[in-house]
Amino acid sequence: MSSDPGVTQLGSSWGAPGDPPSDEQTRTTGHQIQDQEPDPVLVWAPSGRRLVSGLLGLNVVLLGAALVAGQAFNPGGLKHQEPQVFMLLLMGVCLAWMLWYLLWARKQPGISPLKDHHAGGVTVTLVLMLFAAFSLLLYLFRAGYLISMKECKPAAKVLSPFVEASFLLLQTYLLWAHSKDCVHKHKIITRSGLMLILSADLLLWLNAVTEDTIHEEIELEREDGLRFSNTSSPEGDTSDAAGISNRTLCQCSASAACLTFRKGFEILFPFNMEYYLMAGCMVYVMWKNVGRRTSPGPHHVTQKLTLRVVYQGGVVYGLVFGALVLVAGVTVFILYQVWVSQRQLRLTAFLIFYSYHLAVMPIMSLCSLAGMLVHRLERRAKEGGHNPTRSLDVLLLVAAALGQLALSYFSLVAALAVGTQGAMGDMDLAYSLLSLLELILQNIFIIEGLHRHPSLLAKRKEKQRSSIFKLRKKAAEPKQEEKKTDISLLEGNTSAAAQVHDGKKPWTKRAIQEICAFLILSNIMLWVIPAFGVHPQFENGLGKQFFGFTAWFVLVNLGQPLCVFYRMHSVGALMELLISA
Question: In this structure, are residues 144 and 253 in contact, taking their beta carbons and an 8 Å threshold?
Answer without folding.
Answer: no
